[in-house]
Write a structure and sequence with these properties.
The complex is a heterodimer of chains A (107) and B (166). Chain A is mainly alpha-helical and 107 residues long. Chain A has helices at 5-34, 55-106, and strands at residues 46-48, 51-53. With 166 residues, chain B is mostly helical. Chain B has 7 helices and no strands. Classes of the chains: A mainly alpha (107), B mainly alpha (166). The interface between A and B is medium-sized, with 25 and 25 residues.
């Protein structure tokens, strides 16, 4: 077989065409699958902050946000209460200071 | 006028910097394709400058069956030029979608040339007038071009899928 140049040529060319073709097809399949598909979203899925999440995840996120909002409200009220207490204390201090001055004048 | 020419020079410098950075960033990924530019350009030049090369050895009979020396020189040089343009564009201008196609085409043409080149030496050995050492050397180029072709087709498939997803 390997004494016939024509046969050697045709065999070598055929082998190369088949190998190249198969390699190209395989590489194309690898490249095609390399590009990841976007995650399948269950029905009713939402988009939160640009990320696609499932329905259950979205509900958890919303619940957490609501809880944080309520907590922030409480903190605001507490801060307001504290501010009010500070104002009251300041008023009392002024009253005391005034009484002390009056006492000092009388004394 | 001086302001216009200064802006023009700055623009050219920026373009050159962009091209240089683009090539450098992708150089290690495209190393085999850059490497195959050298033998393609050099062989094209050799085929032009030594126009009786085919007549010097029966090892070139397979190549001579297809085209003349001048024709092969043009084919190989065009292949190298297309590849070089594709590599520069691919590294710098991502918006051009057809550089993988150009790279794949250049790889196939180059593969065809080097396979016939190598086959000539193999056939010469079969008929008892050549040495197998050239087959050992030039088959390396064939292997590199198959790798280049595979990478190009992979990039083509990726681009197609990405453009469909958009």
């Amino acid at each position: 077989m390997f004494n016939d140049p024509a046969l050697v040529e045709s065999f070598a060319n055929s082998f190369l065409i088949v190998c190249t073709g198969l390699t190209g097809i395989l590489a194309a399949v690898v490249g095609w699958n390399k590009v990841s598909k976007p995650k399948d979203i269950p029905t009713g899925g939402l988009q939160v902050a640009g990320a696609l999440v499932s329905d259950a995840q979205a509900k958890n996120i919303v619940a957490a946000l609501e809880a944080n909002t309520i907590a922030m409200g409480h903190n605001t009220q507490a801060a307001q209460g504290t501010a009010k207490s500070i104002v009251d204390i300041e008023h009392e201090l002024r009253q005391l200071t005034l009484e002390l001055r009056l006492s000092a004048r009388r004394g | 006028m001086q302001t216009i020419s200064t802006a023009h020079t700055a623009g050219e410098t920026m373009a050159l910097l962009r091209i240089t950075r683009g090539i450098a960033n992708h150089f290690h990924i495209r190393l085999t394709e850059w490497a195959m530019l050298w033998p393609c350009f050099l062989m094209g030049a050799v085929l032009i400058f030594q126009d009786d090369m085919f007549s010097l050895s029966p090892s070139f009979s397979t190549l001579a069956q297809w085209y003349s020396e001048d024709a092969w020189a043009m084919i190989v040089l065009a292949c190298a030029a297309i590849r070089m343009v594709a590599l520069i564009v691919n590294g710098t201008f991502d918006g051009f979608k057809y550089s993988p196609h150009m790279r794949a085409t250049a790889s196939l043409v180059s593969l065809f040339f080097w396979s016939q080149f190598c086959l000539g030496f193999l056939v010469a050995w079969v008929t008892g007038v050549g040495a197998l050492s050239a087959v050992a050397a030039y088959s390396t180029f064939i292997l590199l071009e198959v790798i280049n072709f595979a990478r190009s087709t992979r990039d083509i498939a990726e681009n197609i899928k990405k453009s469909r997803a958009e």
